[in-house]
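Sequence in, structure out.
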Amino acid sequence: MKGFPRVFSTKGDFYNVREEFPDKVKEVLRSLMGARYIWVIDKEILADTKGIEDSTHQIIKTTVDEDGVQREATMQMKVVEDKNSEFYRLDWTVEEANKFLAYQPVATIVKGDNNG
């Protein structure tokens, strides 16, 4: 393989380029780690009920269809880990990814430096 890969098909691909492209491969892994979260509907709440709104919760108003009848609804959303995300599809765990990100590549010998 020449250069930095456009696609990572396996976790092993990350390890294969870790020494040659440490910063770039860590950037890709950080991106995958961040993209492992998705918003899902937690529950429907009454319009006059105060829901939770913070970095992991939000309130949305939407239209729902019940047996062909459409109505307005207020939904409580929350952030969850998407077990179908690319991060997990590549068989990463958060612990393993954090170890990978903490890894410092070995020092490389400069070509032509034969001191001794």
